[in-house]
Design a protein that fits this description.
Low-confidence stretches: none
Bound molecules: nickel (II) ion
Mean pLDDT: 97
Strand content: 15-25%
CATH superfamily of the largest domain: Metal-dependent hydrolases
Distance between the termini: 52 Å
Shape: globular
CATH topology of the largest domain: TIM Barrel
Helix content: 25-40%
């Protein structure tokens, strides 16, 4: 049996029962075999990994991002969403090619793996390139092609997304799954959304959509259809009988919140992107207390401007406290759950996001020998309020070690930095 035994390690299983414990983690193939004390005698054949000064966590799940936007990191800041998109981002994106997207995706995956993110959900274009990069880098990926129809090109894009599913759904040892990606209410029509829904059901795929992100979007949808974005989607039947990942859900009424909860929609909360674009603060405490399913995402690197899920956890834990003047909201344990176990459910990933027997061996080890992590009374608190992405020491996805002692094992870090840097500088001059 090939695998690893992480010995005598402090771990946060995120299994809904134990906050943290100390023991061994046995991994074989792509799964966690068992956790517990003194497993060494039972599994003599597994390669030993010392847990000394380490903290084991399930890998973080970034529920909403756009990998290729790493090339536009820091290119345009401090603008309103529509102006930012229309005058800065869209004109540059028009010049992107497949090779750019491949290297930008590699850069995003390098950053995510080095920061402890082991799975992500993405919506963009040239997605075959992102899929190729995910297959090579070893990360887990949930990919969709952004589907817009207002320029008349909707049918071709839908066909591309279906083709992406044919080529990649369940591929790369099952690490890659595909969803259809209706972009947003303001870039689609009811007829087009119905076509997307029909295609999703025909091929058994989930949907990934931007939903109720800004006041401007919801104002526009109200003007056109006399209801909010979530209500409009409900009227079209988007949430009925299939998995839906909805990013943002910032501007929603109490009735719409109830629709999201009742339909089991997975909400990707992107606090830093929402703050940076001044979109507002999503009603996450209400969604959670109503039983809603909420994960965390960074959104693209041009509205964040990094893909650091530890920062995202910290922002999530703090923003709701500050806005509601209530320090008991979004405690560390709940935020860590959102970033791992709940996030995996939001992204439609089965048996992922928790350290327990039978779950996917997507694991990270943090290095605790750091001034800012000393002393440690509560590991859960540290993960949300004190850990930095650079504290991630070792990363496994699907039982395969992708980083050891911060050294990348599956990809050539220097080459990615060189190619992505060069292409970014070229892109903004095209
Ligand atoms: Ni987005």
């Amino acid at each position: 049996m090939k695998g690893y035994l992480i010995e005598n390690v402090t771990m946060i299983p995120v299994d809904g029962r134990v906050s943290w414990t100390v023991g061994d983690i046995a991994v074989a193939g792509d799964r966690i075999l068992e956790t517990g004390e003194g497993l060494g005698a039972k599994y003599p054949e597994l390669a030993r990994v010392s847990g000394k000064d380490r903290l084991a966590l399930p890998g973080l799940v970034n529920c909403h991002t756009h990998c290729a936007m790493t090339l536009l990191r820091g290119y345009a800041d401090d603008l309103p969403l529509m102006e930012w998109l229309e005058t800065k981002i869209f004109p540059r994106e028009a010049h992107l090619n497949g090779e750019d997207v491949y290297w930008a995706s590699m850069l995003a995956m390098l950053e995510m793996i080095k920061g402890g993110t082991t799975a992500f959900a993405d919506m963009y274009y040239f997605m075959e390139e992102t899929a190729k990069a995910a297959a090579e880098s070893g990360i887990r990926a949930v990919l969709s092609r952004g589907l817009t129809c207002t320029d008349g090109g909707g049918a071709g894009r839908l066909e591309e997304n279906v083709e992406l599913a044919r080529n990649w759904h369940g591929k790369a040892e099952g690490r890659i799954t595909v969803m259809l990606g209706p972009h947003a209410p303001y870039t689609t029509t009811a007829d087009y959304l119905k076509e997307v829904i029909a295609a999703a059901d025909e091929h058994g795929l989930g949907l990934h959509i931007h939903l109720s992100e800004t006041q401007a979007e919801v104002g526009q949808i109200r003007e056109r259809y006399g209801m909010g974005s979530v209500e409009w989607m409900e009227s079209i039947g988007l949430f009925e009988g299939r998995h839906v990942l909805a990013a943002h859900c910032v501007v929603i009424s109490p009735e719409e919140r109830e629709i999201l909860v009742q339909r089991g929609v997975g909400v990707a909360h992107n606090p830093q992107s929402n703050l940076k674009l001044a979109s507002g603060v999503a009603p996450v405490p209400e969604l959670l207390s109503a039983g809603g399913l909420v994960g965390l995402g960074t959104d693209g690197a041009s509205s964040n401007n990094d893909l650091d899920m530890f920062e995202e956890m910290r922002a999530c834990a703090m923003i709701h406290k500050g806005v509601r003047l209530d320090p008991t909201l979004l405690p560390a344990s709940q935020v860590l759950d959102m970033a791992t176990r709940q996030g995996a459910r939001v992204a439609g990933l089965d048996r992922t996001g928790s350290i327990q027997a039978g779950y996917k061996a997507d694991l990270i080890l943090l290095n605790l020998r750091k001034p800012h992590l000393t002393p440690m009374y509560d590991p859960v608190s540290h993960c949300v309020y004190a850990v930095h992405a650079e504290d991630v020491d070792t990363v496994w996805v699907d039982g395969k070690m992708l980083m050891k002692g911060r050294e990348m094992l599956a990809v050539d870090e220097e080459k990615i930095l060189y190619e992505a840097g060069r292409r970014g500088n070229d892109l903004i001059r095209r």
